[in-house]
Amino acid sequence: MHADPKRKLWLLGLSIPVIATGALIGFAKGPKVLQSLFASTGLITLHGLIPFFDRYFAEDSQPLPPQQLKQLQHDPYYTRVVAAYIPLQYVANLYTAHLATRKDTALLDTVLLASLLSVVNVVGMNVAHELGHKSKTYKHLLAHIALLPSAYSHFRIEHNYGHHRFVATPLDSASAYYGESFWRFLPRTVMGGFKSAINIEKNRLARRHLSFWSLNNELLQVWTAGLIYHGCMLKLFGKKWLLFQAVQVAYTITLLEAVNYMEHYGLKRQRLANGDYAPVTAQHSWNHNSLFSNLLFYQLQRHRDHHAHPTKPFQLLESDPTAPLLPKGYGALFGDVFRPKRWFRLMHPRLLQHYHHDLSQIHQRSDHAQAS
User: Fold this and answer.
1) What's the rounded mean pLDDT across residues 140-144?
2) Out of 51-60, 182-191, 208-217, 229-238, which region has the weakest mean confidence (pLDDT)?
3) What are phi and psi of 271, to 5 degrees?
4) Cα(266)–Cα(359) distance, rounded to whole angstroms?
5) Span 352-358, mean pLDDT?
6) Is 263 within 8 Å of 286 (Cβ atoms)?
7) What is the torsional sign of CA 291, 158, 170, 191?
8) How far is the C-alpha of 130 from the C-alpha of 18, rounded, in Å?
9) CB within 8 Å of 343: residues ≥ 6 apart
10) Is 204 exposed, middle or buried (0-12, 13-18, 19+ CB in 10 A)?
11) DSSP conformation letters of 258-272
């Protein structure tokens, strides 16, 4: 008997590429009048079905008994479940690109198909997040393979060695400050993350007395792999693929950064007398216990425990009753994030209550001027 009552439910994470592939078959084989509906499956799933199931599924905040933790930690089943996403992701990428670049595919359907693939690839980025935090080199390789379709291969480096070090401070471009709209945050975090990854890798190589242009540069390795991937796709599907891919990448990155925006909005680590920042605690990540989204996204919403123990496997992440809670699961919050006034109405009372209305405790824009 297995110790994990959710053991088979973790397979739900594979449902996104499976649903996408089913929708693609419907697009290719179904009535022409329904093509746009099939192509819209990604938007319907992300902004409709996931919020619906999040609302009506129970929450799950129960800790695992200590005697079960060791058994689950060393069970290879969980890594296999996560890694199984990647071949399904690539099937969806190839099939969607084929359909989107057909001569008879309308421009609107091309854009909708790109949005469908974005949902597949942003969950693929979460797969890369889970694998990229582990110590095994082959898991880092799998993480980079999952990131290739999104053209965001620097993510593993910046996230692991930049975001996790500076989270909830002005030095982290992936931590949003109070009153910052998502649309102001998006260009800041995209450009900031790219620059941060370059600096991290440059400093790592310098400590080993190596040039940035060394063959040991992980960024150069993954950028080369990205060029090969995109070159092969362009060769296979032609110039029409470029527009499709541009839309897909833009929306995938938007969804990823929307999650970053949610996770630490307005939360701040205080500056100590010696100039360092206070250690990361449960107070520096927004959490949520929705069972459905936690199954779908490998418990990313138990974000406090992830930041406390970055290498901890997803099946062991636990809820923390002292951490601040989001009003909804990630899947249900995208619509609020994309509408700043609605987001502020939803989150500012929560944030102020969390810090007992002490504005000096909140991450604000003025903190960035002081840190620079």
Assistant:
1) 95
2) 51-60
3) -80, 130
4) 10
5) 92
6) yes
7) negative
8) 20
9) 181, 182, 336, 337
10) middle
11) HHHHHHHTT--PPBP
What is the rounded distance in angstroms from the CA atom of residue 203 to the CA atom of residue 219?
A: 12
What sign does the CA torsion over 244, 245, 248, 254 have? negative
Nearest of 7, 153, 1 to residue 80 by alpha carbon? 7
Residues 6+ positions from 71 with CB-CB distance below 8 Å: 3
Res 348: pLDDT: 96
Determine the Cα angle at 47 with ends 41 and 50, to 5°. Answer: 90
In the numeric block, the tokens 């990448």 are attached to 249
Residue 369: the pLDDT is 66
Token couple for 312: 């901890």
Q: Is the pLDDT of residue 370 over 70?
A: no
Q: Which of 208-212, 230-234, 255-259, 292-296 has the lowest mean pLDDT?
A: 292-296
Task: Map tokens 């819209």 to a residue.
Answer: 40
In whole angstroms, give the CA distance from residue 254 to residue 114. 13
Asked if residues 261 and 176 have their Cβ atoms less than 8 Å apart, the reply is yes
Q: For 59, phi and psi rounded to 5 degrees?
A: -85, 155
Lowest mean pLDDT among 51-65, 136-150, 286-300, 329-343: 51-65
Distances (CA, A) of 71 to 58, 135, 244, 250, 294: 26, 19, 44, 40, 20
Tell me the CA distances in angstroms from 34 to 40, 81, 97, 112, 172, one per residue in order.
10, 33, 19, 13, 44
Give residue 21's Cα distance to chain centre.
21
Residue with tokens 């002490």: 358
